[in-house]
Amino acid sequence: MSQKTRAEGSARERLQAQRDKEKARARRGRQAKVAAVVVAVLAVAAGIAIWATSTGGDKSTPIAAPKGATGGDKPMVTVGRKSAPSTLQVWEDFRCPACKQFETGFRSTLHELQDNGQLRTDYHLALLIDGNMGGKGSLNAGNAALCAQDAGKFRDYHDVLFTNQPGEQQDRYKDKNYLIELAGKVPGLVTEDFRSCVHDGKYNGFVQKSHEAFQSGGFQGTPTVKLNGKDLLGDQGAHMTPQKLKQMVLDANKKK
């Protein structure tokens, strides 16, 4: 077995192990929420007043969407030509270590396929780590990425965020000034409009709506990656490689 093959196998195993950890945390988070609901019901039965708030805000209030993004029930940002014959659907969280592993390992292949018109990638943002670990880094980073979309620099800033991702338990991305500092790595991104967008949380509602779609979609964890509807990182995710993904896209496109 060559060194390259061993390295690829090790990387796939790490990605699968990290996704398994995220699934376990998600299950614990759901169990905690169920327990909280039970406590609330018992409190109401005892005559205790319970006040509840929705993270989604007023449902009648229109949700702001960045330029070129798609709203609706499954908000997303598309990278690549919308006319591309194949579509990669990605659900991810900027604080998610497994998402970083996927983006780092597959980045050059995705860029190549996007740039030559073979593939479009629809990015959906989730708040899984904020929910499991606490904090606001997933939300604030997601909003900042959408602010970058307004400037036509979503992909560049998206890659910067994953390259500089802090440790899972460090909620560094809650610091909006730090997010702006990282934006300095993308030429021309840091403007007054971008700063205001980040500090104001202009697209928080868009990110939260996307997360609601993630929750109701029955997904097992982040990243969830589907090529033309086929789950690439499910039970067989450990066998997926950038080369295999590229070949799958090219083979699918020949049939269209």
UniProtKB/TrEMBL annotation:
CDD domains: DsbA_family (cd02972). Residues 1-29, 59-78 are annotated as: Disordered. Keywords: Disulfide bond, Membrane, Oxidoreductase, Redox-active center, Signal, Transmembrane, Transmembrane helix. Residues 77-237 form the Thioredoxin-like fold domain. The chain crosses the membrane at residues 34-52. Belongs to the thioredoxin family. DsbA subfamily. This is Thioredoxin domain-containing protein. The lineage of its organism: Bacteria, Bacillati, Actinomycetota, Actinomycetes, Kitasatosporales.
